[in-house]
């Protein structure tokens, strides 16, 4: 089984690891209680996008869906409320126990557990970007789009020939790790950065790099992603670290809080914040994307916001079940569905409108398209089904395969940005 295999690897690795990194003998302080830590994982049969929206409205959070069976993260109170509303919940695991198992027995303070050292923590991500720039100064440049709530830079890497100039080329944005625990996405952005710099001698790659301006933001939520690993044990943390945490993907300013697709309860996993853009991290994203309007024209033509998990290609809107609505014509919707379908054909994900999962508001997709007409997609990466919180913590052995899996889709989007 998954967890026992991981334990075996942890035990085998433990002896040599003391040489590599300081290991805490035991965790002295209890990890801070969080929404996820206090929750259990439930399965709920026979759901659809309407009922999944109802489930989320209690403050619980649908994590994945398989043939109508939803996997849901919920506190005891939320589970009780759902049962009272007629949902047939079956408890699968306690999140705190699952997180402990996933983290193994050794602790590396400030870093991923010994088994998962293939993942980049925040400092390692910054170092990776710096190394990319120093190896490829002609085609890669690093800057910052702003700072997080706790004051950390949110770095962005630009990749293009004549990288110091703002050329008149279609710009494409890839951003990752809005949600803290979705660490595989950071690896996705780093993979994109490496692929388009290390392989510049490949004519197909050179053609893209020379004729596009690619922006890569590997960690939109630095504080949350650090918090999720800093004790050495995973926390299952989703939000940023402002007060009780704001769900960054409910804080964007297009019809913010409009449609029952986010929560006003600060403890909920989908807390939308006190106002649109109340999170410094979303405000930094807004300012960066707004700054790409040059001469009245948005330069960013296409974007992917990477999340985990469920293996989905999602397009706008999230705030309505309707395909055609204010801000989306049938022709535009059909273009999303066509390109989304083509990308899904290349990576084996399932293509669908975002609201087919459940209704959301204040998400990045809705703003990027609604405000700027960016051809914006959200990818929910590996795994398709994770049995609960485990889905956010795949072993580092899958990083190479599951990031390279999206090469074809990334290339399709880069092509479409010029169409
Ligand atoms: C996640 C799931 C994600 C969310 C689904 C979604 C994607 C909603 C795009 C809206 C737009 O947490 O990864 O609930 O934010
Ligand atoms: Ca491993
Ligand atoms: Ca260029
Ligand atoms: Ca430009
Ligand atoms: Zn997410």
Q: What is the compact description of this entry?
A:
With 419 residues, the chain is an alpha/beta fold.
Ligand names:
L-benzylsuccinic acid, calcium ion, zinc ion
Report the CATH architecture of the largest domain: 3-Layer(aba) Sandwich
Helix content: 25-40%
The CATH homologous superfamily of the largest domain is named Zn peptidases
How far apart the termini lie comes to: 47 Å
The top-level CATH class of the largest domain is Alpha Beta
Domain tally? 2
Radius of gyration, whole Å: 21 Å
Approximate shape: globular
CATH topology of the largest domain: Aminopeptidase
Sheet bearing the most strands, described? 8 strands, mixed
What is the number of beta strands? 14
**Biggest sheet strand line-up:** 5-6-8-7-11-14-12-13
- Low-confidence spans: 1-31
**Averaging pLDDT over every residue, what do you get?**
93
Strand content: 15-25%
Total helical elements = 13
Structural class estimated from helices and strands:
alpha/beta
Series of secondary-structure elements, N-terminal to C-terminal: HEHEEHEHHEEEHHEHHEEEEHEHEHH
Search tags:
single chain; 419 residues; alpha/beta; Aminopeptidase; eight-stranded mixed β-sheet; globular; binds L-benzylsuccinic acid
SSE order and pairing:
Layout: H1 2-20, E1 40-44, H2 49-57, E2 61-66, E3 69-74, H3 76-84, E4 90-94, H4 95-103, H5 122-135, E5 140-147, E6 153-159, E7 171-176, H6 184-198, H7 203-211, E8 213-217, H8 222-229, H9 280-291, E9 293-294, E10 297-298, E11 300-308, E12 312-315, H10 330-347, E13 350-353, H11 364-372, E14 375-381, H12 399-404, H13 407-416
Parallel strand pairs: 7-8, 7-11, 11-14, 12-13
Antiparallel strand pairs: 1-3, 1-4, 2-3, 5-6, 6-8, 9-10, 12-14
Helix pairs in contact: 5-6, 10-13
Bound molecules: L-benzylsuccinic acid (BZS), calcium ion (3 copies) and zinc ion.
One calcium ion binds next to loops.
